[in-house]
Specification:
Layout: H1 4-9, H2 11-20, E1 30-37, E2 41-47, E3 70-76, H3 82-95, E4 102-105, E5 108-118, E6 132-138
């Protein structure tokens, strides 16, 4: 979590690369957390959605989110506070007997999908305390 600002700061570079290659973004930038063990390991994929893969370069890939039921919350604050927002969402779900699509791995917990879509463009809103992030957790079937 300590390095998340550095990742978010690179999003304008991603937009610049896309523009230089004539690729239009298909939505806002995102941060996708694939493996979550907040104390030891956090695997983050940062990017911008595009309509299709770019052939021959290997720099751009297209993907789809898994189908299913999700619990979603909007978080407005600095990315460093996402841990607190996540804890609140987990408590809310536990009170309603909801369970997540998650499995244990040697690296920690691997979630079916925990997607955090940054709804705020960092180049337009430099105040990170005003960034809006959508947290979407896939629920177990």
């Amino acid at each position: 979590m300590a390095t998340i600002n550095g990742i978010a700061d690179r999003i304008p570079d991603v937009f610049g690369w896309l523009g230089a290659h004539g690729i239009a973004p298909a939505g806002p930038p995102f941060l996708r957390y694939n493996i979550i063990d907040m104390e030891r390991q956090l695997e983050i994929e940062a990017g911008v959605p595009v309509a299709s893969a770019v052939e021959g370069d290997g720099e751009v890939k297209a993907g789809t989110l898994p189908a299913g039921r999700f619990a979603v919350a909007i978080h407005i604050s600095a990315p460093q506070t996402l841990q607190e927002a996540t804890a609140a969402l987990l408590a809310w779900a536990a009170a309603r007997d909801l369970t997540w699509d998650v499995s244990e791995t040697e690296a920690g917990q691997k979630w079916g999908c925990r997607l955090e879509v940054l709804l705020t463009d960092p180049s337009q809103q430099p105040d990170v305390s005003k960034w809006e992030t959508q947290l979407a957790f896939r629920l177990a079937d």
